[in-house]
Specification:
Distance between the termini: 32 Å
Number of strands: 18
InterPro entries: CAT-like_dom_sf, Plant_Fungal_Acyltransferase
Pfam family, one: Transferase
Strand content: 25-35%
CATH architecture of the largest domain: 2-Layer Sandwich
Structural class: alpha+beta
Order of helices and strands: EEHEHHEEEHEEHEEHHEEHEHEEEEEH
Number of helices: 10
Protein name: Protein ECERIFERUM 26-like
GO molecular function, one term: acyltransferase activity, transferring groups other than amino-acyl groups
Strand order of the largest sheet: 10-18-17-15-11-12-13
Largest sheet: 7 strands, mixed
Family: Belongs to the plant acyltransferase family.
CATH superfamily of the largest domain: Chloramphenicol acetyltransferase-like domain
Number of domains: 2
Helix content: 10-25%
Radius of gyration: 21 Å
Shape: globular
């Protein structure tokens, strides 16, 4: 059902909860209508953790953080509302200013000790998460957790209901929050309701390959899984661990995400002993940026890549070519989502998400970038998810994986064989 931090959980203790909203009340009766693509993502939750050094964050107070959140939510107050349902069952957000849950806690390690752990999935405990439901009218859509380290450093963890907006919306909002902490003026364009009219879906037309229908979950928005999922996160160098797997292009361009996806796809395929055909999902930033710059909405590119050969025996170069030919499935997902069905996107097929273009380290506090950033998704289907994003050093990448627990050790062994870890 999702994990929430508890008093005494591991190294985190002294938890305290409060609520933060906007300073301006929404007009009575204001609502926000999710699109079909938004609704398709309702069982998923984006997670991010930013860790700041003691030098950067020692003097940062809870009051300063909350005051900056007031400024942020004045711009996007609808994200602090609550879901309700129409008579048809379709969810919508009541802009009732109920607020975001704010969690405070402490850690008995220093930032240096915490970052000394090689598997960055330990950062999962720095995010407070609860799913939406079972009482929609009382479920916050965002949780923000502030953990103070023994040295005075700070971890800021966010759980963000994916139905509100994609990962690029989340990180854009976080960057603006840090600007507000520094006293800068911020602005987020209004996210206008989008009304789309689709013809009655043809029952002979199959669903997009990148989604899976699940039995109705009701008002508790949790992905149904029969397998226990496990997380693993590691950092690798482009020059030493990625480039050797791919021939150099004459123009010097290196498709880092695609190469890394090909390598990891091969490793997982070997563990699963997959027979052909095989389909994976690729999630990236929309290259045409269909939404207004800075608006909060789901517009991420969701592509399906199918092959009819054994992936474990294929070359990385061949897989990179196939990834480049992926089919954008957003229109189909938007249409299916508008039917108010319960769907799984992340992990319906093995999913690779590219966050390399996100400017994670522009989230500066007192002029200083975070020491570390962690990204993942809660509510992943049984096929698993691989997230790739830039590390502190631009020439490195972080990989965060969520796979069935029964596979994770064998996949790591394949990684060692090919030099990833």
């Amino acid at each position: 059902m999702g994990r929430a931090q508890e008093e005494g959980h591991g190294l985190i203790y002294n938890m305290r909860l409060s609520t933060v909203g906007s300073t301006r009340a929404s007009e009575i009766g204001t609502i926000h209508e999710p699109t079909g693509l938004d609704l398709a993502m309702k069982l998923h939750y984006l997670k991010a953790v930013y860790i700041y050094s003691s030098e950067t964050a020692r003097d940062l107070t809870v009051t300063q953080l909350k005051e900056a959140m007031f400024v942020l939510f004045d711009q996007i107050a609808w994200t602090t509302g609550r879901f309700s349902r129409r008579d048809s069952g379709r969810p919508y957000i009541k802009c009732n200013d109920c607020g975001t849950r704010f969690v405070e806690g402490e850690c008995n390690l220093t930032v240096e000790e915490w970052l000394g752990k090689p598997d960055r999935s330990v950062d999962e405990v720095l995010v407070y998460h609860q799913p939406v439901g079972p009482e929609l009218a009382f479920s916050p859509l965002i949780y923000v957790q502030m953990i103070r380290f023994k040295c005075g450093g700070l971890a800021l963890g966010l759980s963000w209901a994916n139905i509100m907006g994609d990962a690029f919306s989340l990180f854009h909002s976080f960057n603006l929050w840090t600007k507000a902490i520094s006293g800068e003026k911020i602005f987020i364009p209004k996210t206008f309701n989008v009304n789309k009219t689709f013809q009655s879906p043809n029952p002979t037309v199959k669903d997009p390959d990148s989604i899976k229908r699940v039995n109705p979950v009701g008002d508790l928005w949790v992905t149904p899984n029969n397998k226990k999922m496990s997380n693993y996160s590691f950092t690798l160098a482009i020059a030493d661990q990625i480039s050797p797997h791919f021939p150099a292009n004459s123009d010097g361009y290196l498709p880092v995400f695609e190469i890394l996806t090909g390598i990891i796809w091969k490793c997982i395929a070997k563990v699963r002993e997959e027979t052909k055909p095989v389909t994976v999902t690729i999630i990236k930033k929309d290259p045409n940026d269909l939404k207004p710059n800075g608006s909060i909405r789901n517009s991420q590119m969701i592509s399906s890549v199918s092959v009819d050969f054994p992936v474990g025996e294929a070359s990385v170069e061949e897989l990179v070519r196939c990834i480049g030919e992926g089919k954008d499935e957003r229109d189909g997902i938007d249409e299916i989502g508008d039917e108010n069905l319960d769907l799984v996107v992340y992990g319906a097929r093995l999913t690779f998400m590219d966050l390399s273009e996100v400017r994670l380290y522009e989230a500066k506090v007192n002029g200083k970038s975070p020491e570390s950033v962690y990204c993942n998704v809660e509510g992943i289907g049984e096929e698993g998810l691989v997230v790739v994003y830039t590390a502190v050093k631009a020439e490195e990448r972080v990989v965060t994986m969520s796979l069935p627990e029964e596979e994770i050790d064998r996949v790591k062994l394949e990684f060692k064989k090919c030099g990833l870890i």
